[in-house]
């Protein structure tokens, strides 16, 4: 039985091996635990990054001037109906102004793609015709003219002289 | 010994590298999507028809900006969703559903129309309190706070079925404990039932699970307050857990994380060569009243009711065309739907003068009318009218004809409403 050992190389990666020997199962268990620990923290990090990225990508910018003038805050632009239609959602801030905005069917906001020279001002049905309640969300539906607006891109909402740029498209 | 130690060290080092790689892979791998089709029915399937559902709480959003506390059956690996997953199985299969209950009260699942249903190995049957006089559940429940129960049955006749809570039914169904079970005929994936005339176009399969919500009930449950059932008034009406216009959004829309199922039908017209088969639409009612669902523009042929084909004693075809599909509570209807151009501009022109857009009563400054009666034809409209029609396609509205059910808390053009999109045979060139 060999009882002597070669002195460990000082500072080498193997120095730690001169600690009291642990059984093999202990090392395997350690590797498994380290794997699970790293994977777990990785998953948490990934989810946090994904949440942060999604939040940044879907945050709709706000314009005090636009809100003051129209009485609404735009909250979402989404491509629906298999790409054929767009929904523009907005929250009512001022009922009287918002009702005027909703009722002005001849001058709907235009949605202009920031990725290509296409836009749509073609509002279709769903003008709900009510006195709009403050705090409640309503919507307009647009024809997606020549597939102007696509998910993952950004649009500029134009209403007369008012603009709201870099609105994410869901 | 030294060699052993070095070998051990190498194993540890290799293990650490593997651990890092595995951890990195897990951490930065894309989040898997349960389903990929953007429109149409999404199935949960399993090679052995084994499913695991968890009754749990979550929130859904409504188009008017409300957020509502709900209960639902979620796939145990995915979490909360409304409605519960659409479970697709084959007739005759042995199906196992393990229900885990994270709710604070007992809950269960009824599987009407299925054969030999058992719960934890015993015949599924009503449950009574210890006195034997008070019904506590229509079937064995899972205990509250992480209890579970395993249901097993033989999948019944091909068709659509509603599965839902059998415990405190009025409350728990209102809270959202329901989903769809689709039983397919063995060996006939693209048929609704065993009849050859129930065949449908692959991929053109839709499911409309209709329901309603009284938000006051949900607020009371969330706050652990008594429910005033005498004041029950449904305010939201849903197809697949969504209200118009969210019904138009694609499956798994990012802004509706707990409401994964869309409800827009997208088809092309019948053509005996290129598109000979219809779409199928399955209607299920998880609510408290009839929902007279009315697709504009085309009848649908009702071929199944409650998972059974409409046939006579000798197999006679008793299916029928209907333009108002009156779906009763707990009931299901399976339909076939195609869109046929009755007229053709050259071979069979419309035998009358087609009114221009300005002759029509409902016209405003915009229209969906293509200024033509023929699908795929788009004529010029007067300059003061905006046409929303891109390639002569049609968007037919489809909604509950009890019009209070087509609102979002009273605001019209909401609720139980969606669109049927019919593209020209060649498709829409811009899409």
Report on the structure:
The complex is a heterodimer of chains A (170) and B (431). Chain A has 3 helices and 7 strands; from the N terminus they run ααββαβββββ. Chain A is an alpha+beta fold and 170 residues long. Chain A has 2 domains: 37 residues; 105 residues, Immunoglobulin-like. Chain A starts with 23 loop residues before the first helix and ends with a strand. With 431 residues, chain B is mostly beta strands. In chain B, the strands form 7 sheets. In chain B, strands 12, 13, 15, 17, 18, 19 and 21 form a 7-stranded mixed β-sheet that branches. In chain B, strands 2-1-4-9-5-6 form a 6-stranded mixed β-sheet. A 5-stranded mixed β-sheet of chain B has the order 14-27-24-16-20, with no helix packed on it. In chain B, a hairpin with a 2-residue loop joins strand 25 and strand 26. The longest helix of chain B has 27 residues. The N and C termini of chain B lie far apart (70 Å). The N terminus of chain B is likely disordered.
């Amino acid at each position: 039985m060999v009882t002597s050992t070669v002195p460990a190389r000082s500072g080498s990666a193997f120095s730690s091996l001169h600690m009291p020997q642990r059984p093999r199962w202990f090392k395997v268990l350690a590797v498994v635990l380290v794997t699970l620990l790293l994977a777990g923290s990785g998953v948490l990090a990934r989810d946090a990054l994904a949440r942060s990225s999604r939040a940044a990508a879907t945050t709709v910018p706000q314009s005090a001037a636009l809100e003051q003038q129209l009485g609404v805050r735009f909250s979402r632009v989404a491509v629906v109906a298999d790409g054929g239609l767009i929904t523009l959602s907005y929250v009512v801030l001022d009922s009287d102004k918002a009702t005027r905005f909703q009722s002005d069917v001849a001058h709907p906001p235009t949605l202009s793609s920031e990725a290509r020279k296409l836009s749509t001002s073609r509002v279709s049905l769903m003008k709900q015709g009510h006195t709009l309640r403050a705090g409640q969300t309503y919507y307009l539906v647009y024809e997606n003219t020549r597939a102007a607006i696509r998910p993952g891109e950004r649009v500029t909402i134009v209403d007369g002289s008012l603009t709201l740029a870099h609105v994410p498209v869901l | 010994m030294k060699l052993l130690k070095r070998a051990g060290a190498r194993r540890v080092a290799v293990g650490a590298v593997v651990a890092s790689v595995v951890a990195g892979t897990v951490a930065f791998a894309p989040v898997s999507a349960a389903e990929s089709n953007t429109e149409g029915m999404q199935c949960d399937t399993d090679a052995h028809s084994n499913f695991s559902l968890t009754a749990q709480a979550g929130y859904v959003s409504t188009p008017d900006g409300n957020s509502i506390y709900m209960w639902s059956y979620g796939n145990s690996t995915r979490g909360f969703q409304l409605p519960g997953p659409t479970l697709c199985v084959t007739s005759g299969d042995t199906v196992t559903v393990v229900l885990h209950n994270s709710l604070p009260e007992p809950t269960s699942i009824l599987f009407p129309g299925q054969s030999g249903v058992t719960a934890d190995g015993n015949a599924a049957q009503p449950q009574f309190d210890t006195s034997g006089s008070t019904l506590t559940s229509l079937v064995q429940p899972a205990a509250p706070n992480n209890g579970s129960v395993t249901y097993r049955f033989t999948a019944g006749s091909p068709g659509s079925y509603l599965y839902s809570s059998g415990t405190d039914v009025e409350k728990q169904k209102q809270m959202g404990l329901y989903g769809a079970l689709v039983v397919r005929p063995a060996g006939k994936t693209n048929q609704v039932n065993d009849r050859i005339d129930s065949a449908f176009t692959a991929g053109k399969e839709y499911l409309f699970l209709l329901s309603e919500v009284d938000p006051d009930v949900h607020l009371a449950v969330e706050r652990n307050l008594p429910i005033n059932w005498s004041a029950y008034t449904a305010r939201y009406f849903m197809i697949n857990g969504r209200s118009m216009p969210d019904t138009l959004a694609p499956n798994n829309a990012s802004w509706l994380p707990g409401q994964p199922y869309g409800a827009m039908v997208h088809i092309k017209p019948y053509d005996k060569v290129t598109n000979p088969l219809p779409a199928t639409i399955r209607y299920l009612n998880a609510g408290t009243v009839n929902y007279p669902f009315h697709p504009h523009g085309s009848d649908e042929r009702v071929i199944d009711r409650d998972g059974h084909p409409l046939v006579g004693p000798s197999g006679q075809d008793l299916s029928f065309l209907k333009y108002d599909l009156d779906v009763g509570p707990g009931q299901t209807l399976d339909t076939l739907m195609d869109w046929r151009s009755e007229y053709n501009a050259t071979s069979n022109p419309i035998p009358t003068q087609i009114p221009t857009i300005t002759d029509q009563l409902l016209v405003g400054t915009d229209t969906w009318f293509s200024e033509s009666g023929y699908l795929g034809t788009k004529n010029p409209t007067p300059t003061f009218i905006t046409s929303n029609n891109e390639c002569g396609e049609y968007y037919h509205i489809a909604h509950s004809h009890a019009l209070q059910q087509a609102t979002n808390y009273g605001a019209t053009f909401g609720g139980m409403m969606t669109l049927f999109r019919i593209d020209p045979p060649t498709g829409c060139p811009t899409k």
